[in-house]
Amino acid sequence: MTTQLSAGALPAIAATASVPGYDRAGLTAGILHFGVGNFHRAHQAVYLDTLFDRGRDHDWAILGAGVMPSDARMRDALEAQDWLTTVVEQSAGESRARVTGAMVGMLPVGDADAIIGRLADPAIRIVSLTVTEGGYFIDAAGRFDPEHPAIRADAAAPDRPATIFGLILAGLARRRAAGVAPFTVMSCDNIPHNGVVTRNTVTGLARLSDPGLADWIATAVAFPNGMVDRITPATGPHERETLARDFAIRDAAPVFCEDYTQWVLEDRFVAGRPRLEEVGVQFVPDVTPFETMKIRILNGGHALIAYPAGLLGVEFAHEAMETPLIRRFLERVERQEIIPTVPPVPDTDLGAYFDVIQRRFANPKIKDTIRRLCLDGSNRQPKFIVPTLAARLTAGASIDGLALGSALWCRYCFGETDNGRPIAPNDPNWDRLTATARQARAEPGVWLDMTEVYGEVGRAEPFRDRFAHALRALWTDGTAAVLARYTDGAL
Predict the structure, then answer these.
(1) What's the start-to-end Cα distance of the chain, in Å?
(2) Does the global pTM surpass 0.70?
(3) Do 346 and 240 reside in the same domain of the chain?
(4) pLDDT more than 70, % of the chain
(5) Per the database record, which ranges form the Mannitol dehydrogenase N-terminal domain (predicted)?
(6) Which terminus has fewer CB within 10 Å in the chain: N or C?
């Protein structure tokens, strides 16, 4: 017999899962969060739930917000279960369920008046967001793009914004006009210097309609950089069925994640913050070393296993790690080319960090799909792979493995696996990528001419040479043979 998740059902659910030990009626919202997806609910919301369980900072609960159709579906699901979420944390040998209660509501999706009204509320002191790597209106170099149609529309009608950044800007403008102190804007996305990127987008948008407001934001609002980490796959029927079978809970939107979690934040907040250091968040003066380590070693590592696995028909990340050719490819590129580019990180052994990442990738409970890891390469490659290439080229060091990784992405975007099965579109720019990949089969250099992805790195002759060599080898001999030659040092 299963129990439908709700506030009233928590005493029954406590038999199979941990439940909030605090009085949720005493919570008040101090954080407005855009993008109440799986990662947010497995990461930020879990840290706050743990803090609240310790009797701390009950005025820092989460109020959700969003502008996308998926946000509306999530709102409907969560409202029906009193804003509760079941989070299943999984190691290779154990799964544990907990019900989190840090969220107290969600505003009507896309209702600009309602969202701006709450952004102007002095009780909201942090606005956080998880909008994916591609949601910040930036180009390959990380610069704000003022010509994006959505940005131009918000700039033309700042009182009727449709984007998250337009809403944040309108909320800050209303607070400034009312003499209310600004809130902190805290990105929780996997972007290098995510605070700087967010500040540039908000102030860049402001400058298009109100330069004075842009100047005020630049000096009065805090945008702390942060590094976030937890592997959190998408939820589907399998996860919901597993939750019902193993924990007797019915939840329309559960989250299954690994048992590992990390959050490193610069301690720059203009209106206070919850005492997250008490529940494992690392507050540091500069997040850059941690950020570089994670983005290059973990996110770059995901890209390295994703595309060869996709071409070989492997479905899950742990299966990729069980494929000797892929695992050896990852190990060789990481230890020989990626890890040497990562500056020292306080209190961290980079080799040991990579060992932990390999165990995380190999966790069979997570069932992280290769398709998810391959998703949105046109936004992820410039952030996770190209900076490492740039560092290696600057040092005059070998880039054979990284060039092969880029060639594997190009081969994947051709739209067929090695055995000829079609690959469904898996990138916002899929049509262009596919057309370019097909041209690159005969002219490899056209792939590197995508300046929005590769920038100046794509013009570097050593990279162009090694990329072309790798891509031609993939077409001539296939993925498995090329990975074998590379791992044997013979490519």
Answers:
(1) 57
(2) yes
(3) no
(4) 100
(5) 30-277
(6) N
Structure token digits, residue 406: 């880029």
Q: Is the pLDDT of residue 45 over 80?
A: yes
Are the C-beta atoms of residues 180 and 122 closer than 8 Å to each other? yes
Rg of the chain over Cα atoms, rounded to whole angstroms, equals 23
d(CA 34, CA 40): 9
Q: How far is the C-alpha of 128 from the C-alpha of 198, rounded, in Å?
A: 10
Helix (H) or strand (E) holding 70: helix 69-79
Pairing state between β 262-266 and 226-229: antiparallel
The C-alpha atoms of residue 139 and residue 135 are separated, in whole angstroms, by 11
The total number of structural domains that make up the chain: 2
State the alpha helices, DSSP H only, in 334-460. 350-361, 370-374, 377-384, 386-394, 400-413, 430-440, 445-448, 451-454
198 and 181 in a single domain? The answer is yes
Number of neighbours of residue 10 by Cβ within 10 angstroms: 18
pLDDT tens digits for range 414-441: 999 999 999 999 999 999 999 999 999 9
Is residue 129 over pLDDT 90? yes
Question: Strand, helix or coil at 4?
Answer: strand
For residue 162, which of 137, 133, 196, 197 has the smallest C-alpha distance?
Answer: 137
Domain that holds residue 316: 288-487
* Residues 20, 112 contacting (CB under 8 angstroms): no
Rounded Cα distance, 218 and 223, in Å: 9
Q: Which residues pair with 63 in a beta bridge?
A: 32, 105
What token pair was written down for 412? 């994947």
Residues 482 and 404 sit within 8 Å (Cβ to Cβ): yes
User: Is the Cα dihedral 423, 426, 427, 431 positive or negative?
Assistant: positive
DSSP conformational letter for 255: E
